[in-house]
Amino acid sequence: MKILVTGAAGFIGSHLCERLLEDPTYQVFGVDTFIGPTPPSFKRGNIQDLKKLPRFSFIDSNLLKTDIDQLLSNIDAIYHLSAIPGVRESWGKEFAPYMYHNILVTQKLLEAAKDKKIDRFIYISTSSVYGEKHGKVSENAITLPLSPYGITKLAGEHLCRVYEKSFNLPLVILRYFTVYGPRQRPDMAFHRFMKQLLTDQPISVFGDGLQTRDFTFIDDCVTATKAVLTAENVIGETINIGGKERSSILDVISILEEITNKKALLSFTGNVKGDPKHTWADITKAEKLLHYSPATSLKKGLEKEWQFIQKLYEENQS
Question: Which residues constitute the domain of residue 152?
Fold first, then answer.
């Protein structure tokens, strides 16, 4: 099977490519253009081992300027991860890149895919489409994004549904809940906290630190994501991908203090516009359709990310 992964050099995309290539019958084509909040040097590091593998091909290209019809020649399945991420940066004049790379690229990819014999078009979305909710959130909850970023990802979902309805596109939508682990983007909370601890800087906490998240370890996330490729009865579904346990930001920092054997000095800043106070995924559908069972505890996942962060910044200092 020939699989296209957009956003292949990113945090989740690079892990997904590695996992897909564990199957000897899969050939993976990764495309990325090294934009967004992650430094290009970090992204190149994400795929340096992948590029050595004979069944992986990397295309350094901006999808807005790519001949996507040619790109999809002989492709059997598409994982569409590429997007400009982040809630905080999506306001004001920074909105334009979100519109181009999250909405227009998705439409361009769908337009090319509609005329191909694609087995599955898997669109990666986000819990940000839900907005502020209380309790566990199922896939049929009303979507009310709080940020321009969330709106662009929801617009992508709607575009997917239009092409599904009009052209019978074999669509699956996955909504990720706060994925963390090695290679996490440097603008994300855990990466920032760990870098600040590593360099003995105060930890910057948005709001009061009592906000809670459904944290999903990267290995669990890609296990579920890979399963979509061959699972039965998933075409047409929207599926939440959440984690093993929820926690508040302050509780996470306490766990990091234990892991790093460092005392955190906290610096509280204002609330972030567009960020919900709480997220909590109902993963019943993922359990049923994908046999998904997140296995990594929050502490174990944080330990693995801490090991990565130490190595990352040691290498970048040398």
Answer: 2-184+215-244+280-295
- Contact indicator for 239, 221 with CB cutoff of 8 Å: no
Choosing from 26, 79, 98, 149, the catalytic residue is: 149
Please give the average per-residue pLDDT across 27-36, as a whole number: 96
Structural domain count, the chain? 1
Say if residue 272's pLDDT is above 70: yes
Confidence at residue 274, expressed as pLDDT on a 0 to 100 scale = 93
| Overall size of the chain counted in residues | 318
CATH number at residue 86: 3.40.50.720
**Residue 63 belongs to a domain:** yes
Question: Would residue 163 show up in a list of annotated catalytic residues for this protein?
Answer: no
- At 278-299, the pLDDT tens digits run 999 999 999 999 999 999 999 9
Are the C-beta atoms of 232 and 167 separated by less than 8 Å? no
55/2 Cα distance (integer angstroms): 9
Within a domain: residue 169? yes
Place of tokens 């910044």: 313
Scored b (16 or more CB within 10 A) or e, 10-38 reads: bbbbbbbbbbbbeeeebbbbbbbbeebeb
Instruction: Map 191-251 to HEC letters.
Output: HHHHHHHHCCCCEEEECCCCCEEEEEEHHHHHHHHHHCCCCCCCCCCEEEECCCEEEEHHH
Query: Across the chain, how many H-helices and E-strands are there?
Result: 11, 12
Cα separation, 180 vs 289, whole angstroms: 23
Say if 269 falls within a structural domain.
no
Say what the pTM is: 0.97
